[in-house]
Amino acid sequence: MPIVVGAQFKPVTKIYFFDPVHYTDLAPKDYVIVDTVKGRDLVQIVQGPHNVSSNEIVGDIKRVVRRATPWDLLQKDLWKEKQAEAVSICREKAKAHRLNIKVHRCEYNYEGGRLTVYFAAEQRVDFRALVRDLARTFHTRIEMRQIGVRDEAKLLDGVGKCGRQLCCTSWLREIASVSIRQSKNQQLPLNQDEISGVCGRLLCCLSYEDPIYKKANKKMPKVGAEVTTHQGKGRIRHLHPLKESVTVLLENNVLAEFGLSELITGKKEKDGGCGTCGGCTVKRRAGEE
To answer: Is 89 contained in some domain?
Structure first.
């Protein structure tokens, strides 16, 4: 198995693997210069040298060129101070070219040889003329990168419904896919405002507990199933997977909560119902006969 180090280009972003070559004493928080498909760049080590399986490696592993020097870090800070000015200039240029885009951030690489412009737009934009204009203004290579609403929220930061800093800016390195099915598994209201984050998409946190709910739901009966309890017969109205209990509407129109171990269900009831469905096709057929 190859030995690699894990590094990030920016805080709380995807971890990339690099070949440490002979720098086997690298530790988290160290800065190094690495080769990339876009040239050399400055990265921070987050995982020291360790073995990984070949399945975890995609493509060729680039190598660590050298340790970063104090001058490299000073250059990085100097160019970082110019980024706010670059954002203002890019916005003015985009307006002059009549492009309907929102420029959110500009980032120089550590030596100022490349300027990456992050922008959002509702559709594809022809920004070739803008790139030429920016290259003449900044005298560096320009890279335009269109981002989606989730990436936009990650760049701008904010506070979520829970009152804490957004997950995507505080600790979540990669955003997993989230589906409405995960909301249904947790019996959350299918109200767009209730289950959406500041980005307008489904909350990322819906995926955190989904495996637990999936496992718990396998033990639960269906809503509408007919059950027998020590208080009499009734039909299930609500499920509580984490508590492993259900709310039952009894025959006397009283709602009561029971644990799964307290329920008595049968595949055949005297009246022809199956006891596990919302039951009602078997009973209708029996009545018609």
So the answer is: yes
Q: Are strands 102-108 and 39-51 parallel, antiparallel or unpaired?
A: unpaired
Give the range of the structural domain holding residue 127, as residue numbers without chain letter: 78-147
Supply the DSSP string of 145-210, one letter for each residue: EE--HHHHHHHH--B-TTSSB-HHHHT--SPPP--HHHHHHTT----HHHHB-TTSSBPGGGGTSH
Residue range 130-164, pLDDT digits in tens: 999 999 999 999 999 999 999 999 999 999 999 99
Give me the number of domains the chain comprises: 4
Q: What is the CATH number of the domain that holds 117?
A: 3.30.300.20
Does 219 reside within a domain? no
Plot region of 239 (φ>0 → left; ψ -120 to 50 → alpha; else → beta): beta
- Rounded Cα gap, residues 219 and 239, in angstroms: 11
**Domain annotation covers residue 167:** yes
pTM over 0.85: no
Q: Cβ distance 125 to 101 under 8 Å?
A: yes
